[in-house]
Amino acid sequence: MKTAAEYVEQVLTKHVNEPNCHxxxxxxxxxxxxxxxxxxLTMKPSDIVDEVKKSNLRGRGGAGFPTGMKWSFMxxxxxxxxxxxxxKYMVCNADEGEPGTFKDRLLMTKTPHKMIEGMIIACHAIExxxxxxYIRGEFHKEIRIVQKAIDEAKAAGFLGKNIMxxxxxxxxxxxxxxxxxxxxxxxxxxxxxxxxxxxxxxxxPFPAQVGAYGMPSCVNNVETFAAVPYIxxxxxxxxxxxxxxKAGGTRLYxxxxxxxxxxxxxxxxxxxxxxxxxxxxxxxxGHTIKAVIPGGASCPMLRADEIDVKMDYDSLAKAGTMSGSxxxxxxxxxxxxxxxxxVLLKFYEHESCGQCTQCREGSHWLARMFKRILDGGGNTDxxxxxxxICGNMAGQTICAFADAVTGPALSSVxxxxxxxxxxxxxxxxxxxxxxxxxxxxxxxHV
Amino acid sequence: xxxxxxxxIKKPKVDLNYSSDKKPVHSDPSPEAKPLPKVTIDGKxxxxxxxxxxxxxxxxxxxxxxxxxxxxxxxxxxxGTCRMCTVEVxxxxxxxxxxxxxxxxxxxxxxxxxxxxxxxxxxxxxLLTNHPLDCPVCDKAGECELQDYNFEYGPALSNFKEEKRVxxxxxxxxxxxxxxxxxxxxxxxERCVRFTDDVTKTNxxxxxxxxxxxxxxxxxxxxxTNEYQGCLTDFCPVGAxxxxxxxFKKRSWFLSKKPSLCDGCSKGCNIEVHSDADIVYRYVPxxxxxxxxxxxxxxxxxxxxxxxxxxxxxxxxxKHNGELHATSIETLLTEVKxxxxxxxTVQIVIGTDATREEAALLKEKVPALIGKNVxxxxxxxxxxxxxxxDDKKLDNLLKMKDLTPNTRGVEEQGLAAxxxxxxxxxxxxxxRSGRAGIPKMKADQKIILWGVxxxxxxxxxxxxxxxxxxxxxxxxxxAGSYKNADGIVQKFHPAIVHRGGALSAHQVVGxxxxxx
Lengths: 446, 516
Fold this sequence. Notes:
With 446 residues, chain A is an alpha/beta fold. Chain A has 19 helices and 10 strands.
């Protein structure tokens, strides 16, 4: 079994296991720290955007939108109604909340400077002088570390006024979220950043026209920013070569669930889901895979016989699921799928912002229905009705949350229908077989 | 966050959609003018102004009934959250919300395609999953958008087998003395929140919590503090917000609805008088872009009570043996004539709540009937207002300082304001229809009251020497016209029939003439 480093050069996570890897000294000494920034500041902003376009870097937050293209959407010289020029903002989405995803957290604790350097370069590329880092409220430690890193960078002259004598100013502000999953959606994040309810906005206008505080803004994920210094340092071609034609570079996969070595693995996008699971030590010894959620909880799940799919954006889409945020959740044969999906649906029921009718009522309905089936009150009509509810939810709302709810619900009924039918026939899930009860025995709160 | 520049924290300006008085637009026929863009809705092409959303085009041509909506309201910013107004736009991958999608030239829109109807059925089913369906005891029943749209689009049966959501104290929660909130019925359209945020700008209401247990709450313990709370209950599409004054009084389908004007202040808000058997149950505003938009204030809304007051004088009263007694108008006028003949000086005071027609009648016809030199002046007496020049706006919406409807219309007659606000002649005729104030007077002042009066008002007058009361019609019972604060003349017709013995000013003058 090969380790991740044997598959591909560790662009992001090479030094994460070394002591003090989060400090500026370490970063400058071992990772060519802030050299990319020095180089980028001598480049024209449009050249940086072109370089990132060439690298085929796609957004790592879940949607996989080409990053260079996103930056190029930013207006060159925005003006308001009175003809005064408007500022532009760079926003870092560090509200990592997708169940099964924990890569941004690793980057923030271990190599915060990589993200900050990437963000300063991005600010230069879109000619913005201010960046907001929206960090999930529960990430106390990460907020502390990133704030320290910003202070260090400022003291060393990499942030603030007249960076490295080039006359470029850049400021970075950390904003702490208040604990809503939906604030990971970029327009909800912008609302939350402005101090409003974290509810997604109607689009258009897109953030590139009307973003944070009504100004043109660009929102990118932590991992996306962290990849930028490497692209500038080593060239777009080299970074692109780690990936496939339409998606360059390496990706961080957060493998969790029933594997021998759960954790974050940096791998090329050319691998299959089965290979990714193998790198994480394979399914736990003595057990077999039942289902895999390939990209965070919102993605439709795959059966054990479907995991030979390539992990790039398009191959997964062809397989009826999504690459999402890279959270691979492996479920072995001890898991009852209905219960596992119920746990996810309960999460979604709790986290729906409640703006749109379908999402607010549908997520609640699905969660209650799954609970009823688990408790033995289900009947086979319910299973047909799951498809109908999901059909009424998907693609009908402002943001993609409703689609995310239907991902696990619909795929579980489609692919594991017999498990539902067993529960319906046998009057629900036997307490001994329930995850909740086994957790309760261990004293965990579910 | 302290070092944000000043220009950064400015809120993006939301343009209120007050231009919602939408009328069809036509291209300039001259050959050099650029033709207006056209959008095809349900197979018919419509011209529109660039910037209109699909819903607004539909409103221009009065085809908006085809598009159901909950969160959209023409007087408020667009939310796009209820997803009820979705339409199919050709070449768009998903259904689009017509309230928020700008119409484009050559766009082809279907408002009733199979896909659209299926989506609407879905929304209706979702909304009804947690709705208590307590229509038999709900005040909104009969005028409820949930009922109407469910009748048109909803599924026949629901497959929702779970327990319905129940909020704490759902049925007894008072947002203020005037508004009751039943959260169980709420469809979370948030019109009310946007109304207090963007129209009254008082930020009284907020949604707390998330998702399906999202709950409407007042932002402060004081509850609702704005003076347009009644509007919340008008546009609430369901019975979540109800107006306590109307609560449990009348089923909406019994109400007959006639347009009229509110005479509570100089704004002249356009209203609909809802009555049954000529008993008024409420006023609701009707849309008039030039006057009141979609709204009216609470004091105006409550002002019908003074006309429905059981102590209102509804038959002619005449002083006999020191007390007022009901009599016939002929007897009364005969006696009045005698009193006026003996009086050394006579004065007519017209309240600024008289219609323009009544003011002209009193100025021109009545002095001739009295047959001597009569001083005619007008009197306002509300909120310290003497003439129209004292009037001013009290807030950013509708409320005016002058609490009578027609100061400008009465001034048009070329009358002078009552000097010092004090009546002084030997005998004074004071005409008022229930809104103008009480002038200063001596304790033994001989007065003939005319118009809308209540017994309480008469008892509280400084003068104890009331010769007669000629009962008259109130605004909602008569026809006429008022000139409002913005100089707009608005005509109105009777909204209800006066069932008592009061007569219109013209009728009284007619009888008076017949006596001579």
